[in-house]
Amino acid sequence: MRREQEFVDGLHEHVETLRADADRAVKEALAQGDTTRQGRLERDILVAERSGLLAALDAVDSALCFGRIDLTGGATHHIGRIGIRADDEERTPLLIDWRAEVARPFYLATGYSPMGLRRRRHISSEGRTVTALHDEILDLGDTTRTGHEDPTGDAVLLAALNQARTGRMGDIVRTIQADQDRIIRAPHQGVMVVEGGPGTGKTAVALHRAAFLLYEHRELLARRAVLIVGPNPAFLGYIGEVLPSLGETGVLLATVGELFPGVTATAADTPATAAVKGRAGMAEVLERLVRDHERLPDPVLAVEHDRQVVMLDEGLVRVARDRARSTGLPHNLAREYFEGYLLNTLTELVAEQIGTDPYDGSNLLDDSDVSAIRDELADNPAVWDAIDELWPVLTPRQVVARLLAEPDGYLPPEDAEAVRRPVTTEWTVADVPLLDEAAELLGEDDRAARDRAAREQRARIAYAQGVLDVAYASRTYEFEDKDDEDAEVLGAQDIIDAERFAERHEEADHRSAAERAAADRTWAFGHIIVDEAQELSPMAWRLLMRRSPTRAMTLVGDPAQTAEAVGVGSWKGILAPYVEDRWEHRRLSVNYRTPAEIMEVAAAVVRARAPEFEPPRSVRETGIRPFAVAAGGPGELPGAVASVVGDLTPEEGRLAVVAPRELHGELGDALGVPVTGVPDLTRRVVLVDPRGVKGLEFDSVIVVEPAAFGPSDLYVALTRATQRLAVVHAAPLPDALARSEALDRA
Ligand SMILES: Nc1ncnc2c1ncn2[C@@H]1O[C@H](COP(=O)(O)OP(=O)(O)OP(=O)(O)O)[C@@H](O)[C@H]1O
What we know:
Layout: H1 2-31, H2 37-59, E1 65-71, E2 76-80, E3 84-85, E4 93-97, H3 104-108, E5 117-126, E6 129-137, H4 155-162, H5 178-184, E7 191-196, H6 202-216, H7 218-224, E8 226-229, H8 233-239, H9 242-245, E9 251-254, H10 271-278, H11 282-291, E10 300-305, E11 308-313, H12 314-325, H13 331-355, H14 367-378, H15 381-390, H16 396-405, H17 413-419, H18 431-442, H19 447-479, H20 485-496, H21 498-505, H22 513-518, E12 527-530, H23 538-546, E13 553-557, H24 571-579, E14 583-588, E15 590-591, H25 596-607, E16 617-618, E17 627-630, H26 637-648, E18 655-658, H27 664-671, E19 685-688, E20 698-704, H28 711-718, E21 721-729, H29 735-739, E22 744-745
Parallel strand pairs: 2-4, 7-13, 7-14, 8-9, 8-12, 12-13, 15-16, 17-21, 17-22, 18-19, 18-20, 20-21
Antiparallel strand pairs: 1-2, 1-5, 3-4, 5-6, 10-11
Helix pairs in contact: 1-2, 5-6, 6-7, 11-18, 12-13, 13-14, 16-18, 18-23, 19-20, 19-21, 25-28, 26-27
Adenosine-5'-triphosphate binds next to helix 4 and helix 6.
């Protein structure tokens, strides 16, 4: 223990030096004034790098080192959250990053396959103080003993699993299990699906995989960013600290409702409405709606020009429309072509009207006359009104709002009723993939932005030119008598370089890749990780696949926990359109969260639908049996819940009351718990609705009125506790629970 403490102390001293160096480097660099473009670039890179290092050092401050491996050859390596090297010539590694290949045996070695290890040591600490060592002997011939042997090899894991919860997920870097490690370190190309029941560590594995990929492919992923998609904001809050604790911050965490820049949708539709909006067929519906805006006159459209009236008939417009469509461009981009064709058509009509020789029918106009007519037409607002009517520029919001306000003719009557709503500016989560699809169909008409950018650039150049002219004039004057040729040449060159000077004045984009990605709908992420992937609709998959042209994705989920009517039918069905059968499937089968006693109750709920269902194997038994409490009637429910909350609230840790939303008001009053949209999971007692509890976990869970839950919601709710579970009900229990022998009656 003393030696490990000395090692840890030495490590912290070294970290202090690194921190001070990095801090100084950042301050010095920031204090430097603007020099050359190159200099500023280098400064920005240095500041970003050192600030990143500082953030990583701060994040991993406690429990920096958590393990040691002793190799049969005599070498030893300490393993930690980040890698640290000594200052010597060879930059000798002091602490090995857990993600490095050298650290791998720490996670994989067994007595049967020791991978060159003699011993594996877990080092536990509180803050900077080493509190315990646990050694596993992997070389069975080795007889040296340290007095810290852990005969079963799982003391550290069990201690982690039994620890009181904090309302924030923690990292599992000290105890990653072998099957989890293989997923975390799988190659990053292609699609990998990770399936596993509740508590098998899917979320933990997904987050550690992100950290591993950022380590292994740092350059690519720092540029392209990693996106992690989760089911709801409470869940993202719950997992938000895992990656920073591993020293990683450059990751974008988002729900699907946040993936259309400018919209943050949290409102949910009813399941039936979300199901209609999420169907793959909606892509064609939107396409049809957009094409219906590429209109034909019925039968003619009169355009006034220069005191004449020109008649655009259906046939003429159809030709222009077909030509514009044949470009294959999205609606807003093809409009430029439509404008051109229609102006040509109008020019011909006007030229015919005014230029035809009344005697022989020949045209009296020459090319320059015709060209002048075209220019005049292009200046005529009436012409642009006609173009706007026939081929309007559309925004994604207009298109989706129009569909939802007037779905008739686009959706069968029943579906139309399900989605219909008045025009509104508030979007639901299920609207977001529709907005994204619409944006894709419309294309970005960036001509205005391009023109503006060009104008600004010209203005900047003119300004820079002016500045340099002044500088040049004064310099010439200043150097006139000195006959300093060099200075003269320099001044002249600067003026030639006005354009470069202007560029230098452009603000550098200081945002991180993740921040830029969040603001850019067309961003292609380096890797996408989807948690609770079973929840996503086909339309949401379309959106995500557009963000991942390389299809580097890790999808984790559990079909048995699917609540959404449009969720995953089968991975195959979802993935085939994008990658055919080129995806990998991995399974996790050990439940680290839910003790066996609770899992038996939860499994009964699924078995009522699927008798052959096999739940994941719980790694722990606690000897504490779940129980049900029957309230005398609905009026007595809050009191009964309050009494069970009193019994089950842990000294440390968290308790969740999972109840249908309708009951939250009276339960909140009875328990003195605030009723909020996004629950504050760091409170000792929280009130959550069945949908919102997905992915979360607590020491104790009380499920209220389970008859009101959908079967998959009930399964999810019953599998959230690490220690104790109770069910409180006024209505009769669902059959599966009523019959379960694993549920005691209090
Ligand atoms: N190797 C491990 N070491 C320590 N704790 C672990 C390990 N694997 C998983 N856990 C813990 O088990 C709990 C469940 O993990 P996680 O939430 O990742 O499971 P999940 O499969 O996503 O569950 P669900 O589908 O029910 O939401 C977490 O508290 C996690 O920290």
